[in-house]
Amino acid sequence: METERRRRLTPAVANVRRAVRAAFAGHLVEGDLVLVGLSGGADSLALAAAAAFEAPRAALRAGAVVVDHGLQTGSADVAERAAAQARELGLDPVLVSRVRVGGDDGPEGAARAARHGAFERALAETGARGILLAHTLDDQAETVLLGLARGAGPTSLRGMAESSGSFLRPLLGIRRAETERFCADSGLVPWHDPHNADPGYARVRVRRRVLPVLESELGPGIAEALARTADQLREDSEALDAMVLEFIEEICEPAEAGIAVSVSALEANPAALRQRVIRYVVQSEFGVTLERAHTLAVARLVTDWHGQKALDLPGVRVVRNGGRIVFTAA
Fold first, then answer.
1. Quick one: 111 and 54 in the same domain?
2. CATH number, domain at 294?
3. Which residues sit in the known binding site for ATP?
4. Following DSSP, what letter does each residue of 72-108 receive, concatenated?
5. Would you list which residues are annotated within the binding site?
6. In this structure, is residue 297 part of a structural domain?
7. For residue range 8-18, what is the model confidence (pLDDT) as tens digits?
8. Which among 210, 258, 271, 288 is least buried, having the fewest CB atoms inside 10 angstroms?
9. Do you know which InterPro entries this protein is assigned to (predicted)?
10. pTM for the complete prediction?
């Protein structure tokens, strides 16, 4: 088996293994258990195989968690096949979690929420230190392009981070074609999700129509450019978030049934910081994410004050009271 693996050390196999090795070195310590989020598709199957190869060499343990969303006929069989592949690769433990997808976030958002819930339960059950997710550079590019089309802010445009809490994404620098090549070179047969060919999903249209047109009309490298844009925006966004956290407590004070922020402090800061403070206060105190139009309306209570009435926004009421902007639950 070892001879076969060495014989198949093609560039795609080497690149994926190298990415996984770097993620291990940066986030895990000797003896840790890490789980691969495995669907059976080419991306996650390549990730699972690379993790199975690299984990013992880093004195780590690697297992897998397979989530059956129950959205397609035969999904239980697909999940069991993926679990069997994980065991054949030497991953242990291998968990299969069946979830119920529902909610108001649309089918993709609801499935993502259910999947992450299953991952959190797997972490608690096994004591694993992290979950490896198989998002690739192509996924990152699609995320940024969809965010641009929606007119989303930097939180969306900065895309996915290589690490966020217990979730690690080693393959954000790897193209999808490389994971497919990895599987072919390794003799692994991935599952092809029919949803990935369904043009009813915006992400599928971006993948199959929009990005190819951009590559054709503007030249190659569009996906890489979008991924670089996400990296740059994430760096800027994280720096601004850190600046907000440095002084947020100094400019806020308790108010009856809510919280108040100093008008003079908001006015003294540039728009980017002012609006981040507003969003941060509302999110942290009331669990509400303001849309840009709502954030700008609150900001006008600072920069364009002429006696406006209170703003009744989704989940929060905002009023200017003297030298304070007062936020209370709606």
1. yes
2. 3.30.465.60
3. 39-44
4. STTHHHHHHHHHHHHHHHT-SSEEEEE----SSSHHH
5. 39-44
6. yes
7. 689 999 999 99
8. 271
9. Rossmann-like_a/b/a_fold, TilS/TtcA_N, tRNA_Ile_lys_synt, tRNA_Ile_lys_synt_N, tRNA_Ile_lys_synt_subst-bd
10. 0.84
